[in-house]
Amino acid sequence: xxxxxxxxxxxxxxxxxxxxxxxxxxxxxxxxxxxxxxxxxxxxxxxxxxxxxxxxxxxxxxxxxxxxxxxxxxxxxxxxxxxxxxxxxxxxxxxxxxxxxxxxxxxxxxxxxxxxxxxxxxxxxxxxxxxxxxxxxxxxxxxxxxxxxxxxxxxxxxxxxxxxxxxxxxxxxxxxxxxxxxxxxxxxxxxxxxxxxxxxxxxxxxxxxxxxxxxxxxxxxxx
Amino acid sequence: xxxxxxxxxxxxxxxxxxxxxxxxxxxxxxxxxxxxxxxxxxxxxxxxxxxxxxxxxxxxxxxxxxxxxxxxxxxxxxxxxxxxxxxxxxxxxxxxxxxxxxxxxxxxxxxxxxxxxxxxxxxxxxxxxxxxxxxxxxxxxxxxxxxxxxxxxxxxxxxxxxxxxxxxxxxxxxxxxxxxxxxxxxxxxxxxxxxxxxxxxxxxxxxxxxxxxxxxxxxxxxxxxxxxxxxxxxxxxxxxxxxxxxxxxxxxxxxxxxxxxxxxxxxxxxxxxxxxxxxxxxxxxxxxxxxxxxxxxxxxxxxxxxxxxxxxxxxxxxxxxxxxxxxxxxxxxxxxxxxxxxxxxxxxxxxxxxxxxxxxxxxxxxxxxxxxxxx
Lengths: 223, 375
Ligand SMILES: Nc1ncnc2c1ncn2[C@@H]1O[C@H](COP(=O)(O)OP(=O)(O)OP(=O)(O)O)[C@@H](O)[C@H]1O
Ligand SMILES: [Mg+2]
Known about the structure:
The structure holds 2 protein chains of 2 kinds.
Chain A: E1 2-15, E2 18-31, E3 35-39, H1 46-53, E4 61-66, E5 69-70, H2 78-86, E6 87-90, H3 102-112, H4 117-130, H5 146-158, E7 164-168, H6 176-193, E8 196-201, E9 212-217, E10 220-222
Parallel strand pairs in A: 3-8, 3-9, 6-7, 7-8
Antiparallel strand pairs in A: 1-2, 1-4, 4-5, 9-10
Helix pairs in contact in A: 3-4, 3-5, 4-5, 5-6
Chain B: H1 4-11, H2 13-50, E1 55-59, E2 71-72, H3 75-80, E3 85-99, E4 105-113, E5 125-127, E6 138-142, H4 146-149, E7 157-160, E8 163-171, E9 182-186, H5 187-193, H6 195-198, E10 201-202, E11 204-209, H7 215-225, E12 229-233, H8 234-248, H9 251-280, H10 282-290, H11 295-330, H12 339-365
Parallel strand pairs in B: 4-9, 6-8
Antiparallel strand pairs in B: 1-11, 1-12, 2-10, 3-4, 3-7, 3-11, 5-8, 6-9, 7-8
Bound molecules: adenosine-5'-triphosphate and magnesium ion (MG).
C-alpha cells in the first residue's frame, strides 16, 4: 500500500504582482517500508513539496493522499488531524522544545497526539532507546550535541508510530560520521516498523540507504 | 505529564521574575491603597459599629457622626414610650479644646453618656472603670491620643474648655475619621462645658430595640413621633457616615484612580512580557502546530502561563502588603485587608493576566507552521 501518493501537484506563490511557479506537476508514490531520497538544487521546490505532503501547505492543484486518505485542501481543519495521526517530521534545525528534556520532548509530542500516562512514558522511553539515547534522556537540548539533538528529533517523530516520516535536510547540520549514524537510524525505523520515509536532501550519503533516489529540478521530478 | 507551559515559563527565570514582580507590584499597590482606605473608613464608623445601639436618632440631615447638631434632650422621653424600645439614652458627641501641659491647644472629640456601661462604650478599656466617670470631673482618653497630645498617665489632669479634668482611665481603638482623639466624659459635664449650645440638649439618641420587636417598625414609629429628626439603623448610619467621607473628600475617587493605575501597570507588564515571550517562542509554537497541535493547544499554554504569573504575583504582592502592615501601624496607618478584598484582588489579578494573555492569541492564530522549515 502507498503511504504517500501525489498526483500532478502544483504550487504557485504570489510574489507581489508576479506569480512564481514552484511546483509544476509532481507525481510520486511511496510505499510502506520504502525510503525515498529527493534531491535537487537549492530553490528547486523540495521544502515546498515536503510542506505540501506534510499537510502544512496546500497545493495550488493536484491531489495528495496520505496513508490512503485524500487530503482535502478545501478543509483546512483536516490538516492538523492528518499531521497528528499519520506524519512524523524531522527538521534541519531540530526544532526541539528548549525547556523540555529529551524524554519530555518525546512525551509532549505524544501528549499532542492524545497519549499520556505510563503507556506514553513507556513509548517515549522506547523511542529514545531506538535512537540510542537512553542515557541522555533527562538532558535539556542545550546539553546535547547536534547529532544527539537530531536523534531526539527522530525519536519525537517516531512517537505515536506514524506511517509516514518526512525529513527536510536532516543531516545538513551534522558532520559526516554523525550524519551517517542518523540516516542509518532512518533506515532502521523504516524497515523495522514498515514506515514510509521521504528524505529531502543535498547530502549524497542519503543515497546509500535510499531504496529510490528522485531528482527535482524547477518543480519537476526528472525521470 | 509534560507541562510545556510551566517549563517554558520557568526556563527564562529572569523574565519570569520580572513578570511576577510586575503583577506583585500591582497587587501590593491595590492592597495597600484599598487597605488604607478601608482602615480610614473603619475609623470613620468604628464607634457606630461598637456602640450597642440598634437605632440612632440624629438631628435633621446630620451628614456623619462627627458633625453633630444639638436638639432637645427631652425627645428621648418620647422615644422611651414607644413599644418595642427597650432602652433609649442621649449621647452627646462634641468637639472641644484640650490644653496640653505645654500650653498648646488641641481639639478633642468628646463622647458623653449618662451610663457608658449600658452601651458598650468605650469597648476596649485598658485601665480604669467607666462607672466612675459620673462620679466627678473625670475623663478617659484613648491611647491613640498620644500622637497628638504627647504622653499622658492616669491620675494626671488636663484642661478642657478651661476646666480641669482628672484622667481616670485609658482606652484603645477609639478613633474618628478626623483623627481628632476621643475623650469620654459624663453627659452633664459636657453640657456644662458648652452651656450655650448644649443646655438641655443632646446630639443623638441611642435606641436599643427589645428582642422580638421589629427594628424597622420601631424605626418608623420613632420617625413618626420625631418628624424633625432622622432615624437610622446602625448599618444605615454607618453607611451614611462612611459615604460622606468617600464622596465629599474625593477620597473614593482618589482610591479608584490609584486602583485603576495599579491594574493598568500590572496589565501592561504582563501583556508586554507575555507578548514578547510569545514572539520569542514563535518557532516552538510553529513546531507544536506542525506536529498536529491546534491553536487551542497553544492558547491553553498561554492561558496557563498567565495564570501562573497571576498566582505567583498575587502571593508575592499579598505577602508584601501583609509585611508592610506592622510598619504602617507604627506611623498610625491602619491597613485593613478583609477576606472579601483578598478574594477580589485575586480574581482581579487572574482576570487581568488572562486578558493580557489574550493579546497574544491573535499572533498565535496567525503562526504559519511552515516556518518550522525555515532556517
Ligand atoms: N511562501 C513563499 N512565498 C513565495 N515564494 C516562496 C515561498 N516559499 C518558497 N518560495 C520560493 O519557492 C522556491 C522553492 O523554495 P523551497 O524552499 O521549496 O526550495 P528548496 O528546494 O527547499 O531549497 P533549499 O535547498 O535551499 O532549501 C524558492 O524560489 C522560494 O523563494
Ligand atoms: Mg529547503
